[in-house]
Write a structure and sequence with these properties.
globular, three-stranded antiparallel β-sheet, seven-stranded mixed β-sheet, 15% strand, alpha+beta
Length: 466
């Protein structure tokens, strides 16, 4: 957690830090843009209200609650069909302030003119108390889930590819199990697919088993953009170079929609650097992962899958053309990163670039998409895919059902479980009295418990002794 700046906006030569506190965020924006004080307060309070109203919906039950829901969600209803850009334009006048408030459009993979305002409210609101990162990185979440599954008798298999979902019945199909690519068949009372709708329905179920209505919906579905992800190991003092545990959104000082359009251009080899970039240092977010010498940096930019389409059917080993293209883009990513860390190239000890082809290989998404279905207004909320499919005993979860990101995809699992068990969210979320969450500041190690300090010291000693 970094309370003073969980995110940093680098817009051309302008800088703004997003504090992890609602009132402090208002204060920081008003201090920077005093003439916009009333507009800032109105806009951010609207964001908070719409997000709170969204959170009411999962637990609505009974006649009177349904009857009064339009009154209790009036702000969400009023702005439900508007984009992020349109609402900001109504409230905010200063061009730079608009860019600062729009810059988190990257969390949707959509330009502000297409991103849903209510969905943006949910994303922005969950940062109003700060940004948090698990000790042990994203893998810690996976480990916690698998431990719990095993504790309750579940079996977790890795490196297993599903060939198809097995169906029974005539006109009304029932999911009975899955067949793995190795030929093994596994049967179950219920099948839950975390793959996106295209992979689930068109590849694993097969179009011949789908209704005309569903096939029509699938044909109209668009998916989010894809990405380049540069992973670096560097030996340099990143704090001395100006970095901290907060994320960096690097953008030119231009209209954000125009920037996004250029990011989606079919030829990305013409310029020396990319238009925009998201930059994060995992070893500053999680000090227990830092060995005293090597820092881990993640840098991400968006692009259109068409750029990589010619390589989509390649197997291993990859073609020389693909490898050369990948190396060219790696250099372009480093050139972009040098805008924030000018001397970083001298300190790189390892680099690896993940491409849209990488996304397809490891996470099996349609055209390497990063956020499931495109989160435009006609594909979210009541227009999104449902957790309960038209095929009996087949359920979906993931980034295309409720929302995207760790929170959205994670919550979809809760919604799917509720659908199967016939329970509301509050009935499934039970507090375990034997567990507690320890929140620590990434920028201040004075409050770290002894076990964590010893872990950090031991890791540094091992590197120092080599």
């Amino acid at each position: 957690m970094n309370p003073t700046g969980y995110e940093h906006a680098y817009i051309g030569d302008e800088r703004f830090d997003f504090p992890g506190n609602f009132d402090q965020l208002i204060g920081a924006l008003v201090e920077r843009f005093p003439k916009e004080e009333k507009n800032i307060i109105k806009y951010l309070n609207l964001v908070k209200k719409v997000s709170a109203e969204l959170q009411l919906l999962p637990n609505v039950e009974g006649f009177w609650q349904h009857l009064t829901i339009p009154f209790r969600t009036k702000n969400m209803g009023k702005y439900a069909l508007f984009t992020l850009k349109r609402v900001i334009d109504w409230y905010i006048k200063d061009p730079l302030l608009k860019k600062i408030l729009n810059i988190q459009f990257g969390d949707h993979g959509l330009a502000p003119a297409k991103a849903s305002f209510p969905l943006h409210c949910a994303v922005m609101d969950h940062y109003f108390n700060g940004g948090f990162y698990p000790c042990g990185g994203g893998a810690a979440i996976v480990k916690a889930m698998t431990r719990t599954l095993k504790k309750h008798g579940g079996e977790v298999r890795t490196q297993q590819s599903v060939k198809k979902i097995l169906l029974e019945g005539g006109k009304r199909k029932t999911a009975a199990g899955v067949e793995l690519k190795g030929g093994e068949k596994l049967f179950a009372q219920r099948i839950i697919s975390n793959a996106d709708p295209n992979i689930t329905y068109q590849q694993l179920v097969g179009e011949k088993n789908l209704s005309r209505k569903l096939k029509k919906k699938l044909s109209r579905t668009t998916y989010s953009c894809t990405s380049l992800m540069l992973f670096l190991t560097v030996t340099m003092d990143l704090r001395a170079a100006g970095m901290d545990s907060g994320n960096i959104w690097l953008m030119p000082n231009e209209d954000m929609d125009t920037v996004y359009e250029r990011m989606m251009m079919p030829d990305i080899t013409t310029e020396a650097a990319f238009e925009g970039m998201f930059i994060s240092c995992t070893t500053l977010k999680d000090p227990s992962s830092f060995d005293g010498k090597h820092h881990g940096i993640e840098a991400i930019t968006y692009l259109d899958y068409k750029v990589f389409e010619e390589f989509k059917n390649e197997g291993e080993p990859r073609s020389e053309k693909y490898l050369q293209f990948k190396e060219l883009l790696t250099e372009k990513m480093i050139n972009t990163l040098e805008k924030v860390l000018p001397t970083i190239r001298e300190h790189i000890v390892h680099k690896e670039l993940g491409t849209p082809i990488t996304n397809e290989y490891y996470i099996n998404t349609t055209k390497g998409n990063v956020y499931g279905t495109e989160k435009k207004l006609t594909q979210i909320g009541p227009f999104a895919y449902k957790s309960k499919s038209e095929i009996k005993n087949l359920y979906l979860c993931g980034a295309s059902i409720v929302s995207h990101g760790v929170a959205g995809a994670g919550y979809s699992g809760l919604q799917t479980a509720g659908e199967i068990l016939g329970k509301k969210q509050r009935e499934l979320l039970n507090t375990d009295s034997d567990q507690s969450i320890l929140i620590l500041e990434a920028e201040n190690n004075s409050t770290y418990p002894l076990w964590l300090q010893e872990k950090i010291s031991a890791k540094k000693r091992r590197i120092a002794s080599k």
